[in-house]
Amino acid sequence: MPQPKVVSVPQLPWYGDTQFQLTFPPSWDVNVCRMEGEDARQLSDDEISEAFSKPIGSRRIRDIAQGREEIAILFDDLTRPTKVSQLVPYILDELREAGIADDHIRFIAATGAHGALNRVGWEKKLGEEVLNRFPVYNHNAYENCVSLGNTSHGIPVAINAEVMSCDFKIGIGCVTPHRLTGFGGGGKIILPGVASIDTIEATHSLVKKAFTSQIDATVEPGKFEDSLVRPEVEEAARMAHLDIKVDILVNTKRETTAIFVGDPIAEHHQAVTRAKEHYATKIINDVDIIIANAYSKASELIVALVPAAKLAKKEGSSLVLVAVTPEGQITHYLTRSFGHKIGGRLWQPKTALPSKIERLIIFTPYMDRTAGDWIAPAEAVIWCQKWGEVIAELRRVYPGKAKVAVIPDSTIQYFPY
Question: pTM above 0.85?
């Protein structure tokens, strides 16, 4: 008897980082869309240390920080795969060499328009030792932001007052494909990371203009040089005087496979050059079923939709979004719903499924019935808590053969080819 086909995908970021076995009927043609850097090896401690000793476009942290009074270390939240605790000791060593005492250092979660972290989230990101030694704050996009003027496109830039009260600023994040800026990382730790809700809204509104052809510019993962939003982000980072940025690349185990330290723009451009190849994935054509696993950004399911949509070339395709995370989907004060008919400033009720998709299944053992609010109308989503239920739904449509594409981590992969 033919055996079921099995594909392993990563799951549970921040909750054990394990593998989940997806099984498929023997008659289905199952293809795995693997990114180029999937098996890239994890950096050693010595390799990370070397990056801090040879910063890009900048002097060492220990040299720049000499004589500075107050230090802000900004870090990304649980929607990003960055293992910040792995990188913090190197930064603290540099600051110690500069003569900076602990009571002059604070950590700030650059949450942008996302919901705040609690202590559990801080511990996952920073580690227990940091919480024992330093104060940690959440960014509040609605209060206590300082106006810095406008960008070239007229975006009013207002930044977290605690950040701006510090005369030395370091950001920690990661570079992965991003819909608005081509690739994340770099100055995004400032905008949207610690920007006011008005600044974040104005930046997102630029994208809306691009989609309505009022501005001729590119908004697509992997499209970096021609990105509409990237120059605004870089300008805001300069206006906020972000001194140093630390950016990493990750594999599909969330391991740090490359690190870039230095001037926020110079290091970021080098990181993006590597990232373009690292996250690149070859497209598979004539697909009936798309399985888009959300791993690195499992709590931001909309990100998984973007590359998956590139595979949806056939009318009547089926899309399965896999989101295995106990925390469910993040609060997004700008773009998510906060009731049946109300939402954030840029929220719009969904009236149809994504183009070419006839059925949308969200598979999650941790039910979160608002998880699809930024993807499709609630009544159009088929919810499954067990993988067997997913296959049963699909077999009703494809009782014989079907061509399947599995994206192991649809939140960090992209299709440039």
Answer: yes
